[in-house]
Each structure stands twice: as structure tokens, then as C-alpha cells.
Design brief:
Elements: H1 5-11, E1 17-20, E2 23-25, H2 35-50, E3 55-58, E4 61-64, H3 73-90, H4 99-109, H5 119-132, E5 136-139, H6 149-155, E6 163-168, E7 171-178, E8 189-192, E9 209-212, E10 218-222, H7 239-242, E11 247-255, H8 269-299, H9 305-330, H10 344-369, H11 386-395, H12 403-417, H13 420-431, H14 436-446, H15 449-460
Parallel strand pairs: 1-10, 5-8
Antiparallel strand pairs: 1-2, 3-4, 6-7, 7-11, 8-9, 10-11
Helix pairs in contact: 1-2, 2-3, 3-8, 4-5, 4-8, 8-9, 8-10, 8-12, 9-10, 10-12, 10-13, 10-14, 12-13
């Protein structure tokens, strides 16, 4: 099944419980805090359904390409092409777009035996996702407060992290809270699990399952939605369309199928999902590079050698990430047996590059903008007053740009570097793959240390303690 945008919007009217503070949201597709974001997601489904290159056929059924279990390098290229099309439509600003968790699940379904007695559940869920074109997001981290369970034990109160509180013949009862379900208000289902390894005494928390967002017992507590406070697309062009939202997930419900109790790195799941993240960030880099050049041109600064050096660095950074992504396909791995996986070392290197570079890249763009952003009027309503319009168009123009186009450019820049939406992205890009030590530990795990050590050992084996007569006397 290839879902359309309108079909996806209808699927969100399922009685889901979403709170903005104390306000209960009745319909996320029409509420002013979420409606434009919902339409942006719907547009992705329409784009995907309209292009035959973004789907594949199996057993006379059509499926979205991000559910394709790659067996050749060409299959990997096909997956990447869809990731890129989705990322380009959102300029890399939707981190948990429909192709993200779908890629995790697809990769896990390529080696379900890892999950032992839960392998059939996992395979069935993969089939369910691709047949219904499900938009899944995940909540796979315990809330920060729950990372000190001794506090709750001493107080004789429940630890807030989601856990199994009862098991029976029909399944399990889960209760508690998980973070952070980015995109959940626009999704169909939430994949609940654990990306961080758990201690042996945390078995009750080790459950992985998928819950429908509209299921009884599920509630989303949204952070402040920025879209609600964007007065128009002109004033906040990115906030207006691409605030994917983040929510804490509260659950108190019975589950009839447990999917897994295992970490993801033993399958291609983690690699497939984070390859999507690499491609998504690359689209964002292209927006940043283009915006940096346009900002420089707006004042004529692009002719200054020092500024051209900065723009050259931007271009080099974008090309470096593009090369890392291309290399993941060129040097793809034959793993697991019968399948192809993006090169894991290159993928994790790119993941580290993205998470540690974004803040510096945004700072460099901020320096290019200088104080020009604050010279703009409070809003574009000046264009509706004849006298103010005349003054604005006369005094705010430059030899390079008219006043309105200049203001439009700086409004876009501010929404990427200085608005609340931009501040959220600064935080998101630093932590979306986990804390820095987690990201770098992936590279540590995948590195061929024996090969590196052999280089050093072979070099040192080529010489020894010199004979005394050959020693040079100082």
C-alpha cells in the first residue's frame, strides 16, 4: 500500500490524546499548533506516492522504498534516493520523517533471529508497517529523572520510566513514561524500546513494543509548539511548516505482542536508520550553504576575500559530508548474509561529524549575518501602510536587493539561527543520536583496531636496538 497525504491526515483523527500544557487537542490536523506540520508530512506522502521510483513491488504489492531490504548496491542507492527526496522537501528540518523509524525496523527485519523468541513478532510488525505504510516514530530513552532509581525506591514511589508491571498469557501490561517522541503527534505508531544498554536489574524496562498513538492509555505531552506562535509564513518560514514537535509519552495499557528485548546494533537497523539521518543533515547543509552565500551577496560582502574564504569552507564541509554518504554505498557491506548494508564505519563517522559540527556551522552563519537581521522592521505589515511602505522600500533597499526581498532573506536566516525553532534545532542536532560519548563509542566499536595496531607493529618490527659502534655520540 502507498498511502496518500489525505489518507494520512485522516488516519490522525483517531481520538489520540495530546496535551499542550493543560489544553487537550481534539484534532492535530486542524489545531493551529500542528496543522501546518501535519500538512508538511502529508505532502511527503503525496510526493512519494506520485513517483514510481520511490516504491518497489513484491508479490504483486507496492511498498515504499524505505521498507526495501537491500540485496545489491543498487537497492541501497534506491533507498538513499527516497531519503534524499524527503529530506529535500523539508530542507533537512524533519529529523523523524516517515523514513527514519521505518528504516530501523526494516534493518532489524533483515536479521530477526537476533531477537530469539520474539523474532516472529518483529517480522510480523515489519509486514504490518510496510503493508499499511505506517508512519512510526520512537521513544527509546528513559526520562532523565528515572536514571536514579534509588531515589524512588527510598521514597517508596514508582520509578517513572516505562516498564512491564504485569505479564499474562495474553501479553503484558506496561506503565510509565518514555522520551522523546519527536514527530509523534503526526505519526500512526510509537516504537517504544531502549537504545541505551540496560543493567541486569532493569529487565522490566527492557521491553520493545509498538503502540498506536490513538490507543486507549496513550497520552502525548507536547513541548511548546512553535508553529502556534508563527504569525505568518513570511515572518517564520521554517517554523510555519516544519515544527515536527517533541513529546513525552505516557502509557498505561495492555500489549498483546512484545517485539523484542535486544539492542539494535546486531542488525542493520541502527545503520539503516542513521544513514537516513546523514542524508537528512546533508539536505540541511545545502540550505545553510545556499543561505550563507545569499547573505553575503545581499550586502556585496561576497567580493571580500575573507568572506569568500568562509564560503569556501562552507562548500568544503557540505562536499565532505556528501562524500561520506556516497562512500557508505560505494563500500557497502555484505551483512547479514544475503543482504547489503551501508558501510557502518563511514556512517558512524558521518553521524559524529553532524552532531559535533552543527553548532559551529550555525555560528559561522550567524557571523555572516551580523547585525543586519536587527535592522529589519518588526514585521512585514509596513507594506500595508502606503507612507511606511514608501519609506521602507526607499531606505531598506541595497544595490543588491530590494527591501522586501532583503527582509525575506533575513527572516529566513533568523528562523534558522535565532528563533525558538532554531534554538530547538541547535539542541536537537547535538543530541538526536545520543550524547557525544554514545555516538563516538559506535565508532570505537566498529574500528578495526587490530589492523591499526598491525600498522604500528609492522613499522616497529623493521628496526631494533642499534649496535653500540653505530651510536652517534652527542
Amino acid at each position: 500500500m502507498l498511502k496518500t497525504g489525505s489518507e494520512h491526515l485522516r488516519s490522525l483523527k483517531d481520538g489520540r490524546v495530546v496535551y499542550i500544557g493543560s489544553e487537550r487537542v481534539d484534532d492535530v490536523t486542524s489545531h493551529p499548533a500542528f496543522r501546518n506540520g501535519a500538512r508538511s508530512i502529508a505532502a511527503l506522502y503525496d510526493m512519494k506516492a506520485a513517483d514510481p521510483g520511490f516504491s518497489y513491488q513484491e508479490n504483486n504489492e507496492m511498498f515504499s522504498t524505505y521498507f526495501l531490504k537491500a540485496k545489491t548496491r543498487e537497492d541501497l542507492q534506491k533507498r538513499t534516493a527516497l531519503h534524499r527526496a524527503i529530506a529535500d522537501m523539508s530542507h533537512g528540518l524533519l529529523g523523524r520523517s516517515p523514513d527514519h523509524v521505518s528504516s530501523f525496523v526494516t534493518g532489524m527485519a533483515m536479521n530477526p533471529s537476533v531477537f530469539g523468541k520474539f523474532s516472529e513478532n518483529l517480522s510480523r510488525y515489519y509486514e504490518h508497517m510496510r503493508r499499511e505504510d505506517v508512519y512510526g516514530v520512537y521513544a527509546v530513552i528513559p526520562p532523565q529523572a528515572a536514571r536514579n532509581p534509588e531515589f524512588y525506591q527510598k521514597q517508596n514511589i514508582p520509578t517513572p520510566t516505562l516498564r512491564v508491571v504485569r505479564e499474562d498469557d495474553d501479553g503484558v501490561v506496561i506503565s510509565g513514561m518514555k522520551m522523546l517522541a519527536t514527530g509523534a503527534v503526526f505519526a500512526n505508531e510509537i516504537w517504544i524500546g531502549n537504545l541505551i544498554p540496560l543493567a541486569p536489574n532493569q529487565l522490566a524496562e527492557s521491553i520493545t513494543c509498538a503502540v498506536p498513538v490513538g490507543a486507549p492509555g496513550v497520552a502525548l505531552w507536547s513541548r511548546k509548539p512553535y508553529e502556534r506562535y508563527a504569525p505568518s509564513e513570511f515572518e517564520n518560514p521554517l517554523t510555519w511548516r516544519f515544527d515536527e514537535t517533541d513529546s513525552m509519552v505516557m502509557c498505561e495499557m495492555h500489549m498483546d505482542a512484545v517485539l523484542a528485548r535486544e539492542i539494535y546494533i546486531k542488525t542493520p537497523g541502527h545503520c539503516y536508520g542513521n544513514h537516513q539521518s546523514n542524508v537528512r543533515f546533508h539536505a540541511k547543509m545545502q540550505l545553510i550553504v545556499g543561505l550563507a552565500s545569499k547573505i553575503a551577496q545581499a550586502s556585496g560582502a561576497n567580493e571580500v576575500p575573507a568572506v569568500r574564504e568562509v564560503l569556501g569552507r562552507f562548500a568544503a564541509l557540505e562536499a565532505a559530508l556528501g562524500g561520506m554518504i556516497a562512500g557508505q554505498i560505494q563500500d557497502a557491506e555484505d551483512w547479514p548474509a544475503g543482504f547489503k548494508t551501508f558501510n557502518r564505519r563511514y556512517m558512524y563517522a558521518a553521524l559524529n561529524w553532524c552532531t559535533e559540527s552543527h553548532s559551529n556551522i550555525i555560528d559561522a552563519l550567524r557571523e555572516l549575518c551580523g547585525g543586519a537581521i536587527f535592522q529589519m522592521p518588526a514585521d512585514i505589515s509596513v507594506m500595508h501602510d502606503p507612507k511606511l511602505r514608501e519609506q521602507f522600500e526607499a531606505y531598506w533597499q541595497t544595490p543588491q536587493l530590494g527591501a522586501v526581498e532583503r527582509m525575506k532573506l533575513y527572516k529566513l536566516a533568523w528562523d534558522l539561527i535565532g528563533s525558538e525553532f532554531a534554538g530547538r534545532h541547535l539542541q536537537y542536532e547535538k543530541f538526536y543520536a545520543g550524547a557525544s560519548f554514545i555516538v563516538r563509542n559506535h565508532s570505537f566499536r566498529e574500528a578495526p583496531w587490530a589492523q591499526f595496531h598491525k600498522v604500528v607493529d609492522d613499522l616497529m618490527a623493521g628496526y631494533d636496538v642499534p649496535e653500540l659502534q653505530n651510536q652517534k655520540v652527542a
